[in-house]
């Protein structure tokens, strides 16, 4: 990355990582796990293709694990139970056998909506061939044939992209449950508002709100024009062309009542003014492009050569 890979390869992989984040946030998480909005088949196909690119399990298993996580959060039935430590919640749960309660309780959940979705069903059935195509073949071949990159460089940068997207999305399960942050909506639960996680995951760090109101399509109290939440902006964009619809949002009165009943008003972040919204956008863009800028400091390959 910092010595021989071409800048065009890095930028191409950065774009793939952005699409990966959106497919997890808007697709596997907000659409298929929580049904917080509905999408036409065109959008579901796009989200399914790029979700396969993430190499983070197929949509059915991803959504099933996430639903179990919400229903049995911080118990043995939670696949990435944060009470078992930061490492376990982050990636350790992927490296060992699951607790029997995860499997037992997962079988009790209603997954009929996903089973009945032909796009989810197709991806689940042909997941590994699709994975070879979307995660391995295309991302590695494009830089080689179009940017004259070496096969080794293209493969290694692709692996780095995967590692970064996996580590950052995993922060929602670890840092957003264990790390610093306020709990303005429900102080009885572990999930908290974590700004850094929001920047790195395109708006998934408003986690205390999300666990209090999991059905909200924005996964936060505020929309993309008030806080850093590009995933909400993407859903709204597709809603403008009719591909996304029936977006569910929590009424302000319900949020206020919940804060008074279970929350901590002192920990609540205010709705940002326009000046701070733009500062939020600048900070968010810095976080999500950091590895491109880091490589730029050292990379001597002239992008014009490509």
TrEMBL record:
Keyword S-adenosyl-L-methionine on entry: no
Cofactor dependence: Fe(2+)
Keyword S-adenosyl-L-methionine tagged: no
Membrane topology term: Multi-pass membrane protein
Gene Ontology cellular component list: endoplasmic reticulum membrane
Predominant subcellular localization, coarse grouping: membrane
Molecular function as annotated in GO: iron ion binding; stearoyl-CoA 9-desaturase activity
Keywords: Fatty acid biosynthesis, Fatty acid metabolism, Iron, Lipid biosynthesis, Lipid metabolism, Membrane, Metal-binding, Oxidoreductase, Transmembrane, Transmembrane helix
InterPro entries: Acyl-CoA_DS, FA_desaturase_dom, FADS-1_CS
Residues passing through the membrane, by range: 6-24, 126-147, 275-298
Pfam families registered for this protein in UniProt: FA_desaturase
Gene Ontology biological process terms, A to Z: unsaturated fatty acid biosynthetic process
Domain note: The histidine box domains are involved in binding the catalytic metal ions.
Similarity field: Belongs to the fatty acid desaturase type 1 family.
Name of the protein this chain belongs to: Fatty acid desaturase domain-containing protein
Species this protein is from: Oppiella nova
């Amino acid at each position: 990355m910092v010595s021989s890979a071409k800048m065009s390869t890095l930028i191409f992989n950065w774009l793939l990582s952005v699409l990966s984040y959106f497919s997890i946030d808007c697709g596997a998480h907000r659409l298929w796990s929580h049904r917080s909005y509905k999408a036409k088949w065109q959008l579901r196909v796009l989200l399914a293709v790029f979700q396969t690119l993430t190499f983070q399990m197929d949509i059915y298993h991803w959504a099933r694990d996430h639903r179990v996580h919400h229903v049995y959060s911080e118990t043995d039935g939670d696949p990435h139970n944060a009470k078992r430590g930061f490492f376990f919640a982050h990636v350790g749960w992927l490296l060992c056998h699951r607790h029997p309660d995860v499997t037992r309780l997962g079988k009790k959940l209603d997954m009929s909506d996903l089973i009945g979705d032909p796009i989810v069903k197709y991806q689940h059935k042909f997941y590994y061939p699709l994975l070879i195509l979307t995660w391995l073949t295309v991302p590695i071949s494009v830089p080689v044939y179009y940017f004259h990159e070496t096969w080794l460089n293209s493969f290694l940068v692709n692996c780095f992209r995967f590692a970064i997207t996996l580590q950052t999305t995993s922060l929602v399960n670890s840092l957003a449950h264990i790390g610093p942050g306020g709990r303005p909506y429900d102080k009885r639960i572990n999930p908290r508002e974590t700004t850094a996680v929001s920047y790195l995951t395109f708006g998934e760090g408003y986690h205390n709100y999300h666990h209090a109101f999991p059905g909200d399509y924005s996964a936060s109290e505020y929309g993309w024009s008030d806080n850093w939440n590009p995933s909400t902006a993407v859903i709204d964009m597709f809603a403008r062309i009719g591909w996304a619809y029936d977006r569910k949002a929590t009424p302000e009165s319900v949020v206020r009542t919940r804060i008074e009943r279970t929350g901590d008003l002192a920990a609540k972040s205010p709705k940002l003014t326009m000046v701070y919204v733009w500062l939020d956008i600048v900070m968010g863009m810095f976080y999500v492009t950091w590895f491109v800028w880091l490589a730029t400091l050292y990379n001597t390959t002239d992008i014009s050569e490509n």
